[in-house]
Specification:
The protein has 785 residues and is mainly α. Among the domains are: 1-100; 122-201; 202-307, Serine Threonine Protein Phosphatase 5, Tetratricopeptide repeat, CATH 1.25.40; 311-375, no CATH class; 651-750, Tetratricopeptide repeat domain (Serine Threonine Protein Phosphatase 5, Tetratricopeptide repeat), CATH 1.25.40.10; 753-785, no CATH class. The chain has 45 helices and three strands. A three-stranded antiparallel sheet has the order 1-2-3, with no helix packed on it. A hairpin with a 2-residue loop joins β1 (754-760) and β2. α13 (204-216) runs parallel beside α15 (239-250). It is elongated, with a radius of gyration of 36 Å.
C-alpha cells in the first residue's frame, strides 16, 4: 500500500503529465531522489510517462535502466515512449527483452507499426500475439484491419472481419470504422456500405469515411444525404467534419456534371460554415478554396481567399493550382508573384503547381524557365517537367533532361523511367532504351508494372516483339495496361494471330477490356482481314455493355470496312445512339476504302446536316473517296468549301489528295494552278504524287518541275530519279535517261531494291530484286513455285 507522501507525489506528477510541464516534473524527480524514493516502482513509472509526454526519450530510457525493480507497467511505459517517438527498432528490441507481455504491450507495438506505414510487420506481430494465446481486443483488430487496408489485402481483412464476428466485436464502432475504411481502400464498395450499416452507433469518423466511399464512386448526392443524416441525428459537426465533407465534393470531379453537382453542394456547406461561425478558420478556409478550385469556380475561390483573415502557403498553392487547372496561366503567374510580395516563400508544392499549370496550358517553355530557377528541384518536379516535354511531343528534350537528372545524381522512379522508355520508343532510340532498361534493373524497377509497360512498348516499336513478350511473361502483377501494351506490340509487329490469342488469354484471366483493348484488337483483326475474329470481339463488346461507346464503335466500323464488309459497317453505324466526329469520319473513310465514292459524299452531306463538326480528317476521307471513284468535280467543290464554308484550313495531305484526283483525270492545268497557290511546297510527298501522275500521263514538263523540287527537298531519295528515267525511257528519250542516271551516279544515289514476301511451308520467304540481281534465302521455294 502506498504512503500518503507517495500518493501526493504521484498526483503531482499526474498534473505535470497532463500539462506537459517538463521543468516542474524534473523538480519533483529531484525531490523524489532526495527523499530516497528512487526505488519506488510506481513513481518511476509515472516519471517515465512524464518524460515520454514531454518528448524526453533519452531521459526516460536512462531512468528505466536505473530502476532496480521493473514490472510490466514499466516496460509498457518505455515501449510506449519509443513507439510515440517512432523509434521502432528500439521498441522492437525492448519488446523482445520484456520478461512478460500483456495485451497493452502487443497493442502498443502493433498500432505504432501501422501508424508508421509498416503494415506487413504489424500483421506479423499480430500473428505472434495470437500464437501466444492472447485474444485480440477492439483496439488490436482496428489496427490490424487498418494494416490490411494499407496493404490492399482484402483476403486478410475479411479474415479479421470473421475474427471480429466470432468474438463479438463486429459491431464495435472502432472495428467497424476500420473495416469500412479497409473495404473502401480495397475497392470493395458494397462491403464498405454493409460494414457501415452493421454499426449500431456510428460516429463522426464512420460518417466521414462513408462519405468518402460514396465520393469515390461519384455518388455525390448520396454523400450529401449522409452528411445531412449525420447532422440530423445530432452527431457533432466541427471544423474537421466540415473539412472532410468539402473534400468529398472536391474529389467529385473537374469539368463534368458531377463536378458541377459537387460545387452546388459545396456552396450549401459554405453557407452552413458561415452559420456555425467557422468562416475565420484557416484550415476550413483552405478546404473551401480547394473545393471551389477543383470544381473550377475560381471566382468563388478568389472571394474566399480575399475574405480570409490570414492565409498560409497552402492557401496560395491552392489558388495557383486552381488557376493552372482552369488554364488561366496568367492568373497563376500573378498569384505566384503576389505570394512572394507578401513575404511567403514558394515551396515545392508551389513550383509543382506552377509547372503543372504551364504544362496543362501547353506553355512548356515557361515551365522550363520556372524549373531552371528552382534551387534544388525534387523528383516530383523533375517528373512534372519530363511529363510536360512528353505531352508536348518534345521527346528529345525529355531525354536530354533525363541525362541532366542523372548527372545531378537524382534517383529516377517508375514515373521517370516510364516517360523516358516511351520517349525512346517514339524516337526509335533502341540502344538508348536498352541503357535505360539496365538502369531499371539496377534500381530493381524492371518488374514494376508501369516500367514494364514502357519496356514492352520500347521493344515492340523497335521490332523486338519476342523480347517484349519475354518481359511481359516475367512480370509478376500484370494489370490491364500491361496486357494492352503487349497486345498492341504484337499487332504493331503484324503478329495478329498472337495478338488475338493473347486477348483471349486476358479475358480468361477475368480482366475487363478497356476502350484501348477493343480498339487495338479490332485493328489487328482488320489488318489480318479476319471477319470471324472481329465478329467474336463484337459479340464480347455487346456482352460487356460498351457497344454504345463512340470510340469502340468507331473501331468496329473501321474493322468491318477494312475487311470489305462496308454494308455491315453502315448497319452498325446507323444503330449507334451516340456519334461524334471520329465515328462519322470512320464511316466516310470506310466508303472511300471500298470505292463507294457516291455513298461517301452522301454521308458527308448527312454529317453536315446533323450539325456535327467537320475536321481535317473528314475532308481527307471524302476527298480520298472522290479520288478513288473518279468524282473529280465533286472533289474540287468539297476542297473549295473547306476554308470558306467550314473554316478548316487545307493541309498538305488535302493538297496531295487533290493533286492525285486531278492527276488521275489528266487535268494538269488545274494541278499547276493548285501547286502555284499551295502553301506546302516543302512537302516531298506532294511532289512525289504529282510526279507519279505525270509519269502515268507522260507530262514531261510538269514531271521535270516535280522532280527538280524533289531533288532539292530530298536529294538522297532515289524514287524521283527512277520515275523520271523510266518516263524518259518509255518515250524513247535516251539522252535524258542517260543524264538522269549520270546524276544518280555522281550523287552516289542507289535505287532502293524491290522486294516481295512469299509464303512457303507456313514460313515467309523474302525475295529482293535489285535490277537484274535476285537474292532469296530459300531458292528451293522458287523452284517449287
Amino acid at each position: 500500500m502506498m504512503s500518503k507522501s507517495t500518493t501526493y507525489i504521484a498526483n503531482l506528477l499526474k498534473t505535470c503529465i497532463d500539462k506537459k510541464s517538463h521543468i516542474s516534473g524534473k523538480l519533483i524527480h529531484a525531490h523524489i531522489l532526495r527523499l530516497g524514493l528512487y526505488d519506488d516502482t510506481f513513481l518511476s513509472n509515472r516519471l517515465i510517462e512524464l518524460y515520454n509526454k514531454c518528448c524526453q526519450i533519452n531521459t526516460a530510457r536512462h531512468l528505466f535502466d536505473q530502476m532496480p525493480h521493473k514490472n510490466i507497467y514499466s516496460c509498457n511505459a518505455m515501449l510506449s515512449a519509443y513507439c510515440k517517438s517512432s523509434k521502432l527498432e528500439d521498441a522492437y528490441l525492448l519488446f523482445d527483452e520484456m520478461p512478460e507481455r500483456n495485451e497493452v504491450s502487443w497493442n502498443t507495438l502493433i498500432s505504432a507499426l501501422v501508424r508508421n506505414g509498416m503494415a506487413e510487420k504489424a500483421v506479423g506481430v499480430y500473428r505472434g500475439m495470437k500464437w501466444e494465446g492472447f485474444v485480440p481486443t477492439h483496439f488490436t483488430l482496428a489496427s490490424v484491419v487498418s494494416a490490411c487496408g494499407m496493404m490492399g489485402d482484402v483476403k486478410c481483412g475479411r479474415g479479421e472481419h470473421c475474427v471480429a464476428i466470432k468474438i463479438g466485436l463486429d459491431e464495435n464502432v472502432y472495428v467497424g470504422n476500420a473495416l469500412l475504411s479497409m473495404y473502401a481502400k480495397c475497392g470493395c464498395i458494397g462491403d464498405a456500405v454493409k460494414a457501415f450499416e452493421d454499426l449500431v452507433e456510428p460516429n463522426e469518423v464512420s460518417f466521414t469515411a462513408m462519405m468518402g466511399v460514396l465520393a469515390e464512386t461519384d455518388q455525390v448526392e448520396e454523400a450529401l444525404k449522409m452528411f445531412r443524416l449525420m447532422y440530423r441525428i445530432g452527431i457533432s459537426v466541427d471544423s474537421i467534419s466540415l473539412s472532410c465533407v468539402l473534400g468529398v465534393f472536391s474529389r467529385s470531379g473537374i469539368g463534368n456534371t458531377t463536378g458541377l453537382l459537387g460545387n452546388a453542394h459545396g456552396r450549401l456547406i459554405h453557407g452552413l460554415i458561415i452559420r456555425l461561425g467557422f468562416e475565420k478558420d484557416l484550415h476550413l478556409g483552405n478546404s473551401l478554396l480547394d473545393m471551389y478550385a477543383k470544381t473550377r469556380d475560381m471566382e468563388s475561390a478568389e472571394a474566399v481567399f480575399n475574405s480570409l483573415p490570414q492565409v498560409s502557403n497552402v492557401s496560395w498553392n491552392v489558388m495557383i493550382g486552381g488557376y493552372g487547372q482552369d488554364y488561366q496561366i496568367g492568373k497563376a503567374l500573378d498569384y505566384m508573384q503576389m505570394m512572394k510580395e507578401y513575404g511567403f516563400e514558394a515551396d515545392e508544392v508551389t513550383h509543382v503547381n506552377m509547372l503543372a499549370a504551364c504544362i496543362k496550358s501547353g506553355n512548356v517553355e515557361t515551365a522550363r524557365k520556372i524549373f531552371s530557377n528552382m534551387a534544388c528541384p525534387s523528383l516530383v518536379s523533375w517528373n512534372a517537367m519530363l511529363s510536360g516535354y512528353f505531352q508536348d511531343e518534345k521527346f528529345k528534350e525529355a531525354i536530354k533532361l533525363f541525362r541532366e537528372m542523372q548527372f545531378r545524381n537524382v534517383q529516377a522512379d517508375r514515373t521517370t523511367l516510364a516517360i523516358i522508355l516511351n520517349s525512346c520508343a517514339v524516337l526509335g532510340l533502341f540502344e538508348w532504351g536498352k541503357a535505360v532498361h539496365c538502369t531499371c534493373i539496377k534500381g530493381l524497377n524492371h518488374t514494376d508494372i508501369y516500367v514494364g509497360s514502357g519496356l514492352i512498348g520500347l521493344y515492340s516499336k523497335c521490332n523486338q516483339a519476342d523480347v517484349a513478350k519475354s518481359i511481359f511473361d516475367r512480370m509478376p502483377g500484370r494489370d490491364i495496361v500491361c496486357w494492352n501494351s503487349m497486345i498492341a506490340g504484337l499487332s504493331l509487329n503484324s503478329l495478329d494471330k498472337e495478338a488475338f490469342n493473347l486477348f483471349k488469354q486476358m479475358m480468361g484471366k477475368g480482366l475487363y477490356p478497356t476502350q484501348f483493348s477493343y480498339a487495338t484488337i479490332l485493328s489487328s483483326c482488320a489488318k489480318s482481314s479476319s471477319v470471324p475474329q472481329g465478329r467474336q470481339v463484337h459479340t464480347q463488346i455487346v456482352k460487356d455493355g460498351v457497344v454504345n461507346d463512340v470510340y469502340v464503335g468507331s473501331a468496329l466500323i473501321d474493322m468491318y470496312s477494312k475487311c470489305g464488309e462496308v454494308h455491315e459497317a453502315r448497319v452498325f453505324f446507323d444503330t449507334m445512339p451516340f456519334k461524334n466526329t471520329i465515328t462519322w469520319n470512320e464511316m466516310i473513310h470506310g466508303y472511300a476504302q471500298n470505292g463507294c465514292g457516291d455513298k461517301a459524299i452522301d454521308l458527308y452531306n448527312e454529317m453536315i446536316q446533323s450539325g456535327e463538326k467537320l475536321d481535317g480528317i473528314t475532308f481527307l476521307a471524302v476527298l480520298t473517296a472522290c479520288s478513288h471513284s473518279g468524282l473529280v468535280d465533286h472533289g474540287i467543290a468539297i476542297f473549295n468549301s473547306m476554308q470558306s464554308e467550314h473554316g478548316v484550313e487545307p493541309l498538305s495531305d488535302h493538297y496531295t489528295c487533290m493533286i492525285d484526283t486531278l492527276g488521275r483525270a489528266g487535268r494538269f492545268h488545274e494541278i499547276e494552278v493548285l501547286v502555284d497557290k499551295m502553301p506546302c511546297k516543302d512537302d516531298p510527298i506532294v511532289w512525289e504524287v504529282l510526279l507519279s501522275s505525270c509519269r502515268f500521263h507522260d507530262n514531261v514538263t510538269l514531271a521535270r518541275r516535280a522532280a527538280d523540287a524533289l531533288f532539292s527537298l530530298d536529294p538522297k531519295n532515289s524514287a524521283p530519279y527512277v520515275l523520271l528515267a523510266n518516263m524518259y525511257s518509255s518515250l524513247g528519250r535516251w539522252d535524258e535517261v542517260k543524264y538522269v542516271r549520270d546524276m544518280m551516279s555522281k550523287k552516289s544515289i542507289v535505287k532502293n531494291p524491290g522486294y516481295s514476301w512469299l509464303e512457303h511451308k507456313n514460313e515467309k520467304q523474302h525475295m529482293v530484286n535489285h535490277y537484274s540481281y535476285m537474292e532469296m534465302p530459300d531458292s528451293e521455294a522458287v523452284c517449287i513455285l
